[in-house]
Amino acid sequence: LTWLSLILDYNLYGDNAGGYHITNLLFHIANTLLLFFLLNKMTGALYRSAFVAALFALHPLHVESVAWVSERKDVLSAFFWILTMWAYANYSRSQNWKQYMIVIFLFALGLMAKPMLVTLPFILLLMDYWPLGRMKLGKNISVNDFSTEKKSLLSLLLEKMPLFLLTLFSCVITFVAQNKYHAVISLQDISLSQRICNTLNSYAGYLEKTFWFHNLGVFYTYPDKFNSLEVAGAVILIILLTSLAAIFIKKTPYLAVGWFWYLGTLIPVIGLVQVGSQAMADRYTYIPLIGIFIMLSWGLPVLLSGIRYGKYVNLFVATVFITTVATASYHRVQIWENNFTLFGHAIEFDKRKYIAYHILGYNAAKYGDNEKALYYYYETLKINPKYDPAYVHAGNVLQKMGKLDDAINCYLKALRINNKSAEAQYNLGIALILKNRFPEAINHFTESLKINPDDADVHNNLGIALIKTGKIKEGLGHFQQSLHLNPDNLEFQKNVSVALNMVKNSR
Length: 507
Fold this sequence. Notes:
By secondary structure, the chain is mostly helical. The chain is built from 24 helices and no strands. Helix 2 runs antiparallel to helix 3, helix 2 packs parallel to helix 5 (72-94) and helix 10 (192-211) packs across helix 11. The longest helix is centred in the N-terminal third of the chain and has 27 residues, at 17-43.
């Protein structure tokens, strides 16, 4: 569904990036309004619902999900998440099977946007306890008299069985797909103990970033070692908050619902199943932070109700916090202006981010600043000498500058690290053609085709090298293959024509 939405954007906006950003922003605004109306509908608490919605709309941790075009899946899946909750709220009042089919349909659409929604059935269970008050679990809790029918926990679990089946199906499909493309990190690379430590630190870290915005990053590098005091502090914090939520669950159910919402919705992305090399990511908080915002919005007035002028203090605190959050988001958005501002900030945040240096080098080369590009590539290799793409792209820049021997040396270093790099094999072949070393170029083009047999450019250049060594028929075969792969390419058409004439003349 995410891909379909981006395809639709392409048909509407073409290469105009602003259009994609507008779509993300419209989804974010829609999510904010839906969240406000849903909470107000279920609780009747207008101002508290507005406070949650305002924090959701303006929090700097949510900038990444909206400003990054590729994170369309966040705003799109959240749209269906909230719509599913809305449909479920309607179903809980009517008990109409048609309403329940709408719940299933919307949930399926959400999973098709982003599989992180697998936790939604568990959140609906939390809603059954508060604010819907459908659960027979000790004292019945109902807000705004939204629902009168009470059910046992077992009945509510069975009721959600179709949703749990969709969750299971989505988990299996996602794991298989990620594993197929080698995105799932094995336990040999990151041990179970490391994952547990990172999970605990991440739960505490996201909470810290909710209230303290100075250390927000684009990419959080997985630590080589974990500070035992930090991990112990995270454990104490999680146990303390979980215990308080459980102890006061009847008196203040919104605290328990908000806290378990936060803990539960982060599980798919908390790192127990590690996908990618990041320790954590701002975008992962787009839905989970709603739980913390609920805790703040309903808990703060209760906390301040016992003091003099508590209502005014509550209003002041809420106003200051929203203003601070909005200001932080304004400055955070500036970082996303372009690749240089974004990855320049990433380097300021963490000097170890060799990928940020590499991306800066790639963009400097794209805009013709070869010296700066080489500087960034060399900085990349200082941090990670085994990062072969930096050697490849440094070689490309050196080749552009006419320094062919240096370029060839870079490509050879890349291949010593990773001899399966089709790009390194191909670019080395190009450099060798420029040096008139055609037999060597043929070998590297051939290796490149073993890795990526459908690369039209490789076939074309292999054809050139073969013809230069007198192998005209073989060269013609590769020209024809390149034209077959890309029939509209004028250069390929010309090369086929020239090679055919050469074959005729050689008879």
